[in-house]
Amino acid sequence: MQNLKPSVSLIRANSYAKDSLKESLTILLEPFGGMAAFVKPGQRVLLKPNLLTGSRPQKECTTRPELVYAVAQMVIAAGGKPFLGDSPAFGSAKGVAIANGYQPIIQELNLPIVEFHGQRYQTVSENFNHLLLSKEAIEADVVINLPKVKSHGQLTLTLGVKNLFGCVPGKMKAWWHMEAGKDANRFGEMLVETAKAINPDLTILDGIIGHEGNGPSGGEPRHLGILAAATNVFALDRAMVEVLNVPPHQVPTVAASQRLGVCPELTEIDFPNLHPDLLQITDWRLPDQLMPIDFAMPRVIKSTFKHLYIRFIKEPMSAYGRQ
Question: In the predicted model, is pLDDT for residue 147 greater than 70?
Fold first, then answer.
């Protein structure tokens, strides 16, 4: 009888070195049938890393370019056509990617970077059917979600589900903080609905080096030595809060996915490689203090102007300086 339980592949991986990482990813994806199980020849494949900011490139705030490179190579080997996309809080996807060391892989693989543009997308939930989601993500043949393990000053942790909030384009994210952020339960449900709408085909989580403490950008790097993969992003997040020893109810995205009935219990998840118990971190540092999710109007306006300044003034000036 076919096993219908969602699977989460968890392995130890300690290096971003090219050969080592390629071997780790091969082991990680073997239970699913490898990359060829997800990507067919000619398909356009969105790689959605966490490109939060270009301002702290040494602090492990973003998905490592080495991981993106290795996954892109696997996609190309399967006959797919990978492209990068994200909607950073400040600046452009290309500007943030280059600031975080992506330029060599962009050039070597001729990897396009797209800026996300929104379109209204009908969600199952009437509460959120006015969400604007990335047209580029929705229309991709395959979506591979590439989050980073991070603590988060508003949401406790950011994992696979939260990374898909990057598919809400531009400054709409700040407006959603203002609209839904007064209620952490509602905000978590909005993030779950976003993840359901994007419905990534595969999530590969970068946990070799995470970002702990006052994340998503104000904390510090932390070596974890973990890679995780799943077709069910909610199952992956449930497994990872177990690894990090954080109660699910403390993470609004996980708690919301449980309330909405899309998050399996730990006993309902198949672990073909390592079980979370074998990887548990007992001293992962969460934020010193959680901040309100709600963005008041002055903060939204300030955030919008900062984004526009970085995108249209600072980034072009930096590019001019490199010429």
Answer: yes
Centre a 10 Å sphere on the Cβ of residue 276 and count the other Cβ atoms it contains: 21
The model carries a pTM of 0.89
In tens, the pLDDT along 34-46 reads 999 999 999 999 9
Write the DSSP assignment of 133-186 as a string of letters. Answer: EEHHHHH-SEEEEE-EEEEETTTEEE-HHHHGGGGS-TTHHHHHHHHHTT-HHH
Q: Please state, in angstroms and rounded to a whole number, the distance separating the CA atoms of residues 293 and 176.
A: 10
Contact 253, 227 (CB under 8 A): no
Close Cβ partners of 322 (under 8 Å, ≥ 6 residues apart):
none
Going by C-alpha positions, the residue among 48, 44, 126 that lies closest to residue 88 is 48
Query: d(Cα 251, Cα 152) in Å, to the nearest integer?
Result: 10
- Residues 280 and 277: their CA atoms lie apart, in Å, by 5
Does residue 322 carry a pLDDT above 80?
no
Q: What is the pLDDT of residues 163-215, one digit of tens each?
A: 999 888 765 555 554 554 467 788 899 899 999 989 999 999 999 999 999 99
Sign of torsion, CA 198 94 169 302?
positive
For the chain, helix (H) and strand (E) counts, in that order, are: 12, 11
Instruction: Compute the distance between CA of residue 278 and CA of residue 35 in angstroms, rounded to an integer.
Output: 26
Instruction: Note the residue count of the chain.
Output: 323
The burial class, CB within 10 Å (0-12 / 13-18 / 19+), for 46 is buried
Query: From CA 22, how far away is CA 25, in angstroms rounded?
Result: 5
**Residue pair 171/303 in contact by the 8 Å Cβ criterion:** yes
